[in-house]
Structure formats: C-alpha cells, structure tokens
Amino acid sequence: MSQNHIPREDSEANPTGAKAAQDLTSQRTLLIGTRRSQLATTQSGHVQAGITEQGWASELHIVQTPGDASQASQIPVAQIGVGVFTETLRNALAAKECDVAVHSFKDLPTAPDKRFRIIVPERVDPREVLVSVDNRLLKDLPEGAKVGTSAPRRVSQLRAVRPDLEILPLRGNIDSRMGRVGTDLDAVILARAGLERVGQLDRAAESLDPHVIMPAPAQGALAVEVRADDDEAWQAVLPLEHLPSHLMAAAERAVLATLEAGCSAPVAAHSEWTGSDHTELTISAGVFGMDGTKQLVDTVKVTFPREFVNAERPQETKPDLDKREQLLARAFDAGSRLGTILLEAGASDLVAEAR
After folding, report:
1. Of 31, 38, 124, 216, which one has the fewest beta carbons inside 10 Å?
2. 242-311+318-354, which class in CATH?
3. Span of 11-15, 80-84, 264-268, 291-295 with lowest mean pLDDT
4. Can 154 be counted among the known catalytic residues?
C-alpha cells in the first residue's frame, strides 16, 4: 500500500502530544540528512524551516552519495541503478547518522520500507520546463535542434511531438545542465520544481503542458522520512504534512508500482484536483514507446471528503492517523486501478522495450 506507518501517538490524537513535543525540543537537535547539491540543500532547508517553526532545534547534515560522483563523471542513471540518490540517505537515517531524510519523492522506490514513516509537504508545480537559446518555445525550436535530457520518459514524449529533434544525454546539477544551453545544446528539459526551489524559474522559456510532456509520478513533491520508531522526530515533521499533495503523489506512484516500473522507465503521471468543490482527484498516466510512435494514456477519478482535501483553501480539519491512512489507501487504489488499465492495454511491452 502506501509508504506510511501509523505511530503509537500523535499530537492531534493525543491531547498531551503538543506539550510533550515542547518538552522534547529543548533536549534534542534533529539532524536533517541531505545531499550536498544546491537543490538538495535548498529543499532540506525548507523542511528545516518548517521544523524550526514547530519549536525544534535542527541542522543540516551532508551525506555523500554515489550518485554525486556519478553526476561529475556523467555516468547515465541506468548504469548506476535506480535509487542511487536515495538509498545512501536512507541507510544513514536507519543507522542514526541523521534523524530526518529529505528526498525528491519521485526518486524513491515504490516498494514500502517499514523502517521509515513518510510525510509530504505542500507540492510545487510538477510540470516540465524548457530552457532554450533565445527563450524559444518547444514548437519554435529549429529543425534538428539539439535538446538535452537523459530521462526515457522525456525522450519518448519528445520524439512523439518533435521527431526531428536530436536528443542528447544530460546529467549534472541544475547550473551545469543549463550551462550547456548555447554551447553544445539548443535547449534542455528540466523539472520546474527544481528551478522554482533554487530561484531560477526566470530561466525557463516555457512550462510544458502535461498533455504535451507529462511529468514523472510525484514530480514536485518532497518525501520527508523519519525512523519508524522515532516518535520525537515524527512529532517534529508531522505538522508539515499537506494531505492533498500526499494523496496526489501516492496515486501517481501507485501507477508506477502496478506497472512494476522504476523511476527511469518511460512512465509518466499527472493528477489535479477537479470538480466544482475541488474534491475529485483526476489521475492521468501514460506509458510511451522510446521511438515516439506508441503511447498508452488513460485517466481515472476518485473523490475525497471535502473537509480534508479541498485544495482551494487551507485544510479545515486534519484527519487522525487512522483516517489519514484510509485516505492514502484510497488514492493508492485509484492509481493502482489506472496502472491495471494500462497493463491490460499492453503497457508492459512498452516498459520492456525501454530496458
């Protein structure tokens, strides 16, 4: 099911929880595990600020991952393995080297890990952006333009909408990727969330419509993990949970889990709150052939109680943990149903072709 685990106590379910948390804040400094990159430390800094607002002392703790070295040498993710950027962080958390780990949720394996509990802060815009010479739009790039991206999901969709483009591998941090625009590349495709978080969204020529280039499942969402037996750290991060965002991410990742595809597969998903009262979650997902000639796309919808998920205003009521798990299970089931629809339409063949 979801990667969420019910603790023994919660400040909302337990009247003494808030006071207990206040007492504990003076006794412990929480270490927030993060990679060294600007994006990773910025994301973790946002989480640290939220923890500080709850009255907890905290500091960032840098964890070196094999993925950092692979970026410098431009080794493709497919060669170094899925989850290379997250497993070292998780191991550090499990070993008590840090107390909190901050991930891009899209990079986590979809299989539940009972060592940890997860919350999801409010998600930022999940769309892709194009950074290009002279701020040209995707449709206006010259024939044969060189576009950088290594993600099979992006490559396959780019080939579908612009088969004339020359698509080249791209690794590195945000600055090094954008730095190639105007040198050996005409454009690059990046996640809007990354540019937004590091304050460089003005570099984007356009944000791409999800119906043109659908983003990765859970793109734009962070996953904040603590150890399953660490109630103090759980009390510190739980107030940062944004349930509408978590439900969206859970549904999208359920598609990936049902397809048994990793984060590097040509699988995309996008969800949005729809309906007159914004309580209906519309989940779209697609599986794409690497040559751009085949695609399977479908949609499912699921409705949630208004008091918990209305995305147009702050949450009126936060559910107790049992109810939270039930709502996440409903989102996961909807995404799983969508994944099954895609499987029945032949998605497994497209996923296998990309391996």
Report:
1. 38
2. alpha beta
3. 11-15
4. yes
